[in-house]
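Quick question, first post here. What does this chain look like in 3D?
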Amino acid sequence: MNKLKPPPRMPSDQSRGRIWLVLAGVSTGLFMLNVVSRMLFTKQGIALWRLNDVGEFLLVLVAMAFFVVGILAAEKQP
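> Answer (accepted):
Ran it through. Tokens below.
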């Protein structure tokens, strides 16, 4: 019998880096919420929760760091 090899798995299929990718998604969602609230304040004058420029930068930095750690954790070690 001729057996085929199973297709290679994607790094995102493994659960090792999943928590870091979830944290990256949550951080990115908070950043998007901040952008929407800033747009509402600019266009409509509605004052909601907002981060200043430094807080916004730190939120994006944390999101990207979580994303990189998640991708590196999901890679297979040789």
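The chain has one domain: 15-74.
The longest helix spans residues 18-44.
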